[in-house]
Amino acid sequence: MFLSGPVGPKQESFIQATFYEDVRASAGPGRYGLDHPETQELGFAPSLLNLAGITAPKNGLMLIRVEGHSMEPTLASGDLALVEKFNGRVDEGATYVLRYGDDILVKQLQPLKSEGALRLISINPAYETQKITGLDLEQIEIIGKVTGKIGRV
């Protein structure tokens, strides 16, 4: 045998991810927020996440299905977004899942500090960018940062 080392699977602890089965993060106009979603706990081997270029999350991991086309080609309708729970800091240009009013959206975020505003950016140029200002900012709750995806080939 030309392989060396112990025979059998390497033991490693799994990273737990909560899959929100009924929630859809809209890559479009937004319409899929649920207050009491069905969930399922899944485990990911850290080595699998590392192979995919995904850093193990520090704040917990969620899986949320994307529906719509505004984030294509990065996120396609039907993809599962791997979302690290929000850590309180927005990285400009990163993609986030957020609640805006009753809707759950997936968008790139650009804080406009000098204007006291937040820009919600769709990657697909067929969709418009939204600028959230004033009291509408109080309706924004950032759920987490998209760190990867599981999608079809």
TrEMBL record:
Matching entries from InterPro entries are given as: LexA-like (IPR039418), LexA/Signal_pep-like_sf (IPR036286), Pept_S26A_signal_pept_1_Ser-AS (IPR019756), Peptidase_S24_S26A/B/C (IPR015927)
Name a GO CC annotation attached to this entry. Answer: membrane
Q: Which domain of life is it from?
A: Bacteria
Q: Mind telling me which SUPFAM superfamilies this protein's record contains?
A: LexA/Signal peptidase (SSF51306)
**Keywords for the protein's UniProt record, in alphabetical order:** DNA-binding, Hydrolase, Protease, Transcription, Transcription regulation
Name under which the protein is recorded: Peptidase S24/S26A/S26B/S26C domain-containing protein
Q: Where is the Peptidase S24/S26A/S26B/S26C domain?
A: 24-146
A molecular function (GO) held by this record is: serine-type endopeptidase activity
Whose protein is this, by species?
Candidatus Lambdaproteobacteria bacterium RIFOXYD2_FULL_56_26
Q: Example GO biological process term?
A: proteolysis
Q: Which PROSITE patterns does the entry link to? A: SPASE_I_1 (PS00501)
